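Narrative of accomplishments. A recurring question from our advisory board has been how the design workflow behaves on a single, concrete structure rather than in aggregate. To address it, we present the structure tokens for one chain from the evaluation set, followed by the sequence designed for it. No filtering or post-editing was applied between the two.
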């Protein structure tokens, strides 16, 4: 009987496992971290948790930001994430990265395992043997959520990486164990240049633990990262190389290069030797902190109390599966499923957690703060992410989005300029790009019911941000109603984006019954009309005297008053008042012809060849999907008499601009914005104007989808007659009732229910 009992128990356990697998599909199998790792995609393939502080990934070269003549080196742009798929060598593995940005920083705390002679320079791609870098077996390189592995050709070292939120764990397995070293290069960085490292400090605490920090002056002017590194084996020997300062004080009485337990300098590199048996793994934990080495060590002890690499990997992948399961989809092909879940994966890479487990973090004032009742985040690429990423969060990550708004408000209170974030990371504002799009994120969240933050403080922050006369031509905008090109470049783009942001402030003020403020900002939101030229039919930059700038070429992306776009694309950027834009352009028929021409005309290379962020593979006609200002344009057909053309264009963009493989992104992913566009449109709708509660319909590519909402409800999307040819919507029903509108409201999604698209080959005009 006892034997039968255990057999039955075993069968029950196995069946339970099958049941769990069936109810929780393994979605990480559809994520390919290599998508977008080549050319402009600029994502990294390494290991990380959702929104993780540690983003542990290989570095494949040491391209410097400036060449020998101190000129900007254009090749550095290929290494925004530190990784290029086509490279044949790996320099090492560092712990912080941006996902798909058009500028860069980070690449902190680079480790590299080597065997044989100690070499503290990285060498070159042509001659890796002259340094610590190594060629690698390309077919051994694998990546999946929270795991990366590769085999280095130099002495056949197997490298495996996984993470917790604040700790990266390395597992190195050596075939040759004659002389094993771990190189620690704290001079390495992404977008590096001579003098970027302001100061570095390393302290050898004991034979298995080192701590330290480094301060850099890069995109973030004053950035400090603290770390603690623990080894699973005792250190046998160690030494350092560092830049000598003019004044050495009385430290000169020591041999600082060999077995001295405390070292500081600007360009510090170290080596640590270990005795390891063949095929015995050497494990390394690297914890980071924005506050202190004590904070880093505490993060390590709490998040990785043991050395169970496989458990950390499993736990991280389980966390990823839970996050990805917020949207479950059925697609026509496996490739489309990979595109969908890789895109969703990209949207959950950032912004990143920026605080220790005890809630402490460094603020913009460089003091230590305590996050009370929220998780503090950093890396806000708001010119990109307000468009679709944060609106996606209002549906599938509302609690995180609320915490991100709290993080923005904390930024405001700590900012000497009294402004919300523009483009911020690691307790710094780097002032990249234009507009003040934090106000869009705040307004969008509030009108959609995310209200558990202080609205009075938030409105104050929005107003003071929009009134900083020193910021980017904003004083001229307030006085003249437009930004003059001869006083502030990219003026037309700035005027358009300021006007949209002002509309967002108006909507927020209206939501909290501040009517006088609403009236002020509703009027400011009309400033886009001041730079529309009826004679040409385009938005154009003006000079201080109110005259339009000449000469003017609406196709050119260079020197025409626009940033990362031309007049053809930017003239459509009035998301908050498309009906008035249609009127300015001469009516619905003219708007329709304008949009048709945008997608059909040819944009010669000469018009964008000197613009880093615009490349041929991100362009359809003159529509530049590889850059964000155009992302709402296909939906403007809804404001003409041909809304069905939106369906055609959306499905075309989904097919042409998103693919599997290393070149699968048509432009920078820009911290998840490009991927968020895909996620929204694959399920059938898009937030044309964040700050409103409408999502306009496109043409869903999925067979069906389920949105598992944080409030416990489920929103189901189904398509009838779905195929590659059936791109046109014949009818839409919501909970059994036919929808006559071209949009769905946020509340209708969050209430749960069933949305059904009936598809066909011909447009229903």
């Amino acid at each position: 009987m006892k034997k039968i009992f255990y057999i039955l128990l075993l069968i029950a356990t196995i069946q339970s496992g099958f049941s769990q697998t069936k109810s929780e599909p393994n979605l990480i199998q559809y994520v390919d971290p290599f998508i977008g790792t080549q050319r402009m995609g600029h994502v990294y393939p390494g290991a990380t948790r959702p929104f993780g502080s540690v983003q542990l990934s290989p570095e494949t070269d040491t391209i410097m930001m400036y060449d020998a003549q101190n000129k900007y080196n254009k090749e550095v742009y290929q290494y925004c994430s530190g990784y290029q798929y086509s490279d044949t060598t790996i320099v090492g593995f560092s712990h912080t990265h941006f996902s798909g940005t058009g500028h860069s920083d980070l690449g902190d705390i680079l480790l590299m395992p080597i065997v044989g002679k100690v070499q503290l320079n990285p060498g070159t791609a042509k001659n890796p043997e002259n340094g610590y870098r190594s060629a690698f077996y390309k077919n051994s390189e694998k990546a999946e959520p929270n795991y990366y592995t590769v085999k280095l050709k130099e002495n056949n070292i197997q490298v495996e990486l996984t993470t917790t939120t604040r700790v990266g764990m390395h597992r190195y397995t050596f075939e040759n164990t004659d002389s094993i070293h771990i190189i620690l290069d704290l001079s390495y960085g992404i977008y590096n240049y001579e003098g970027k490292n302001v100061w570095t400090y390393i302290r050898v605490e004991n034979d298995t633990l080192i701590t330290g920090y480094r301060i850099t002056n890069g995109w973030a002017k004053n950035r400090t990262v603290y770390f603690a590194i623990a080894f699973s084996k005792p250190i046998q020997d160690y030494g350092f190389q560092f830049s000598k300062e003019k004044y050495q004080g009385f430290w000169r009485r020591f041999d600082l290069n060999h077995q001295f337990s405390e070292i500081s300098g600007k360009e510090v590199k170290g080596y640590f030797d270990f005795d390891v048996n063949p095929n015995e793994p050497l494990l390394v934990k690297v914890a980071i902190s924005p506050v202190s080495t004590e904070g880093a060590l505490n993060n390590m002890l709490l998040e990785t109390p043991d050395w169970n690499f496989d458990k950390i990997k499993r736990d991280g992948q389980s966390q990823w599966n839970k996050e990805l399961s917020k949207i479950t989809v059925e697609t026509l092909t496996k490739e489309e499923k990979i595109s969908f879940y890789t895109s969703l994966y990209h949207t959950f890479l950032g912004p990143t957690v920026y605080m220790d487990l005890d809630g402490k973090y460094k603020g913009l004032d460089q003091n230590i703060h305590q996050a009370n009742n929220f998780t503090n985040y950093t890396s806000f690429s708001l010119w990109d992410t307000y468009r679709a990423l944060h609106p996606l969060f209002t549906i599938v990550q509302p609690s995180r989005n609320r915490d991100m708004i709290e993080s923005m408000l904390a930024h405001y209170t700590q900012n000497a300029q009294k402004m919300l974030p523009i483009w911020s990371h690691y307790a710094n504002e780097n002032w990249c790009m234009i507009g003040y799009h934090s106000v869009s994120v705040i307004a969008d969240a509030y009108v959609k019911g995310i209200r558990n933050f202080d609205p009075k403080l938030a409105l104050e922050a929005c107003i003071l941000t929009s009134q900083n006369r020193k910021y980017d031509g904003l004083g001229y905008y307030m006085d003249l109603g437009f930004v003059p090109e001869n006083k502030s470049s990219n003026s037309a783009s700035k005027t358009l984006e300021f006007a949209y942001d002002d509309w967002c402030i108006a909507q927020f003020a209206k939501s909290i019954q501040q009517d006088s403020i609403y009236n002020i900002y509703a009027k400011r939101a009309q400033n886009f009309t001041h730079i529309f030229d009826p004679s040409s039919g385009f938005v154009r930059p003006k000079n201080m005297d109110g005259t339009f700038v000449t000469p003017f070429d609406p196709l050119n992306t260079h020197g025409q008053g626009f940033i990362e776009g031309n007049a053809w694309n930017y003239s459509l950027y009035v998301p908050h008042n498309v009906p008035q834009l249609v009127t300015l352009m001469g009516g619905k028929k003219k708007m329709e012809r304008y949009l048709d021409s945008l997608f059909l005309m040819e944009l010669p290379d000469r018009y964008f060849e000197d613009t880093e962020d615009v490349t041929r593979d991100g362009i359809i006609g003159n529509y530049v999907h590889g850059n964000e200002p155009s992302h709402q344009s296909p939906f403007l057909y809804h404001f003409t008499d041909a809304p069905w053309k939106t369906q055609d264009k959306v499905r075309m963009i989904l097919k042409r601009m998103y693919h599997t493989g290393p070149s699968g992104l048509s432009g920078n992913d820009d911290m998840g914005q490009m991927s968020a566009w895909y996620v929204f449109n694959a399920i059938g709708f898009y937030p044309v104007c964040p700050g409103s509660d409408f999502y306009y319909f496109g043409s869903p590519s999925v067979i069906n989808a389920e949105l598992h909402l944080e409030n416990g409800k489920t929103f189901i999307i189904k398509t009838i007659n779905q195929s590659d040819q059936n791109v046109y919507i014949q009818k839409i029903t919501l909970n059994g009732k036919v929808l006559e509108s071209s949009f769905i409201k946020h509340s209708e999604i969050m209430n749960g229910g069933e949305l059904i698209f009936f598809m066909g080959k011909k447009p229903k005009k």
